[in-house]
Each structure stands twice: as C-alpha cells, then as structure tokens.
Amino acid sequence: MTKARDIADFKFENIVDTGTEGTKVASGTTAQRGSTTGQLRFNSDTGLAEYYTGSQFKSIDAPPTISSIDVTEVDSQAGGNQTINITGSGFATGAVTTFVGYAGTNFNASSTTVNSNTSITAIVPKSSFLNAQEPYGVKITNVSGLSATLADQINVDSAPTWSTASGSIATLTDGGRSSTYVTSLSATDPDGDTVTYAVQTGSIPTGLTLNANGTWSGTAAEESSDTTYNFTVRATANSKTADRSFSISVNAPVFYAFTSTGSSTWTVPVYAQNKPAEILIVAGGAGGGRAGGGGAGGVLHYTSFTLSAASYGVTVGGGGTGWTADSNNESLQRGGNSQFGSGVAYGGGGGGYSQSTGWNGGCGGGHGFNGTYNGGSSTQTSNNGGTGYGNAGATGSSGSANAGGGGGGAGAVGNSSSSWTGGAGKYFASFTNYGTNSSNGTSGTRGYFAGGGGGDGHDSTRRSGGIGGGGTGAGQNSGNNCQGIANTGGGGGAGHYGSGSSSNLNGGSGIVLVRV
Questions:
Q1: Architecture of domain 65-156
Q2: For the chain, what are the domain ranges?
Q3: Strands (E), 299-394
Q4: Are 278 and 355 in contact (CB under 8 A)?
Q5: Is the Cβ–Cβ distance between 343 and 281 less than 8 Å?
Q6: Greatest pairwise CA separation for the chain in angstroms
Q7: Residue 246 burial (CB count, 10 A)
C-alpha cells in the first residue's frame, strides 16, 4: 500500500508535454504569489507569465518598439499641456512614458493612455521641456520592465520674448523726424535663434522704414498737424512669432517767435528736449544815412540745433536810428545784435552821411555822396555752429558822384551806379510765416529777411530797399516812410539830398525764430 509520504515526495523529471493546446500553469493575482525559487505562474493582474528567481518575480515578455511620434517641437513657454501620440508595437496596459533629456534630465508624462498595443497617448506640461535638455528622446516602459527608446525626437522651440515695452516708441518734432530718434525694437529668443521684425498691421510714418533687425531708417515726412501712427510688429524666431503694439507720433512744426526787442529766457519744452531745431537769428537793421542806405542786420542760421533740456537766453536787436541832423552818429545808427544761446547775429552798419564811407556791420551801410567813397563791410560770421549771412554796402564808382549807395543785405551787396537800391535779403523756406518779400511794408510772400536800405540817388526818384524789409531811399522827395520793416532786420533808407533831414529812416528790428 502507498503511503501519503511517498505521494508527497513523488516528482516528475524531464516532463514532456505532448498536447497541442499548451500546458496550464498556476494562475493568480500578485498578492497570491508564492516564494519558492523557480516557481512559474501566470499573473492575472499583469497578464504576463512570471517566474521567481529567489529574490524577485520577473515577467516573461517581449520589449515594446517605438516607430514614431507626432510632435517634434514644443513651445515650453506657451503654457498648458502638450499631447503626444506615440506609434509602435508591444505596448501593454500600465506602460509608462518617459521623456529622456539630452543632458540626462528625464521626466515622466503626467498621464499615459495605452490605446492599443500599437498606440499610446501621452500628456505632459509644455513647461517640463527645457532648452538645455533638447533634443528629447521618448521611452516606453511596460509593466514587465522591458522598454524601448526613440532618441532625439523633440526640440524645444519657444516664441521670442519682447524686451521693448509696448506703446509709444517716439514723439518726433519737426526738426527731429530722423529715425535716429525712434527706439529700436528688441526681442530675445530662448533658443538663441535670430529674431526678425516686420510690421504686421497698421501703418508707420511715411519716410520711415523698419529694418529686419529691429532698427529704423529714413526720415518721417513733415505733417501738417500732429499725427499718431499705431501699428503691430511681429517678432519671428525660426517658426515662432510674438506680436506687440507700438505707436510713433509725428508733430507738426511749432514756431517760437521772439519779436520784442531786448533780452528774455526761453525754456525748452519737454517734447523738444534733446531734439534738433531750426533756428534763425536776425539782428536789427541800421538806420539810413543822409546819402547811403542802412545795412541790414546780419543773419545766423542753424539747420539742426540740438536743444538740450535747459533754458536759453534770447536777445532781439532793435533797429538803428536814422540820420536826423547834418552829421551821422555811427553808434546810434548801428542795429542791435540778436542772440540765441551763444549764437550771435550782428547789427547792421549805418549808411554814409555826405562825403563819407558807409559803416561796417552785420551788413555794411551804403557809401555817401561822391563815388570815391566805399560802402561798409560785413562783419557777420559763421559762429557757434550756425551759418552767417551778410554783405557789404554799395561801394562808389565812376559816374555816381553826389549819389549815395544802397545798404548791404543778407543775400546781396548794396547797389550803386544808376540804381542805388538796397541789397536783397536772404530767403528761408522754413519761415514763410515771417519776414517779407518786399520793402517798406508792402505785403507779399514772406520768408525773406535782412534787406538793405535804399540809397539817395540825388534825384527825385525814390530808390527801393532790398527785398526782405529794406527801407526806401528818399531821394529829393519827402523822407517820410523810409524805415526798415520791423522784425525783418531791414536797413533804413537814406535821407533826401539837400538841406534839412528826413524822418523815419530807422532800421527795422530783428527777430529770433525757433522751429521745432
């Protein structure tokens, strides 16, 4: 009879299974595992056969494979999650997706969904991807511990980040419409890609160009009224973009006119500080002599004077006093200097008396009776960065005896011989709201300054002052209304020939104009 002990000790050796369906081994959950080395069982929790090594259970499985993923670029600064679909084979329920950093920093997907043994969907925060770790590989690890990795798949490409604040990047005054005064645009790319810039919507001032590198070039066109341009610029790095809104204001010209004689102080308005301005400084014209026309005031012109954040002293020279007696007083006849900051325009020189030369000044006075006498010289210089304008008074010549020459103007010398008219003034296109194209107060197109006073032609004909405010010479007529025009720097006309004197021979006062 067989004993129970003998049955328990019975062992099968070198078992051969001849069936076709397979051999069934023990099956149970993970909790039901045994602990005998060499045990072979089916784990109903994992769905895999497993065996015990004496220290751990190992699943019997084939590793998965990864063939492709559908996302190869992630914007880590975009916020939110990135969904990545992974295609391959051998994916098992419970698989884990890991993103493998190039420099060794790995992280798992926040969720992994095994759709089938050939498809996985992984979801991960975009911010988890770091530039320093690109390109990332993808690793799938099944519950068996077997895994597959597809290297160098995902690059981090973030949109550029703007450094230039949105809003106004320039307020251009009339003199400062150059691109020099427009803020360059700047954005940075965390991937180190080159950033380019282009206007996306809206419009920029005519004449300005936004370059691809964010700088500006050109000069904005002049506006008839203050105009603000609103536009959006797109910064592009590789395929990523970032838009930002900006504006540029272009102000119409603003004129500051100083017309009252004497000194004052002008404080630069904030919008014009450190911007260039056009400045015209016209000195007072000289009074006319008995024979020679008074010289116009000298002119100093700045086409681009950078105004600092400061105050400037301003002086407007008065017109000189014309001849009133049988002698000339040079100091009374001379026009007053005009000044802006350190720039000086010099007052005109008086016209000659009888047999005498004209006086020197910003523009020289015309010669006196007798053609052997000379006109005064111009003392106007280019100084302190400005360009000076001034000319001599008429110089006597054969045939002009007993006639006085015209005073010099900022644009031309005074005339002698048969015309004895004042020298023409100088035209400044930017200041056509001021000055005059006439003499002795008649109306006309403006913009001319510092015409010389007319001389005494020793006859009954009145000799014209120079265009730009020069007074008319009296000749042998009444000497009334011979003064230079106020705020033009025009020289006074000469008094009439003969006994007595003429009235109203004074030079015109100067002016200081600032265009910003």
A1: Sandwich (2.60)
A2: 22-60, 65-156, 161-250, 254-516
A3: 299-307, 311-316, 338-340, 343-345, 387-389
A4: no
A5: yes
A6: 178
A7: 23
18-32, 153-167, 233-247: least confident range: 18-32
The CA distance from 284 to 389, in Å, is 14
Confidence at residue 380, expressed as pLDDT on a 0 to 100 scale: 98
Distances (CA, A) of 421 to 309, 467, 502, 508: 45, 10, 17, 17
* 163/132 Cα distance (integer angstroms): 22
**What does the alpha-carbon distance between residue 436 and residue 468 come to, in Å, rounded to a whole number?**
5
Q: Do domains 65-156 and 161-250 have the same CATH topology?
A: yes
Six token digits for residue 120: 């996985």
Count CA within 13 A, CB hemisphere, residue 272: 24
Mean of the per-residue pLDDT values for the chain?
Answer: 89
Count of other CB atoms within 10 angstroms of residue 130: 16
- Indicate the range of 58-67, 284-293, 399-408 predicted with least confidence: 399-408
- pLDDT beyond 50 at 477: yes
pLDDT for the residue numbered 225: 94
Q: What angle do CA 19, 22, 25 make, to 5 degrees?
A: 125
Q: Which strands make up the sheet holding 311-316, listed edge to edge? A: 262-267, 311-316, 338-340, 343-345
Q: Dihedral of CA 95/140/145/110: which sign?
A: negative
CATH class belonging to 161-250: mainly beta
Q: Give which of 264, 406, 284 is closest to 345, Cα–Cα.
A: 284
Q: Name the residue type at position 340.
A: F
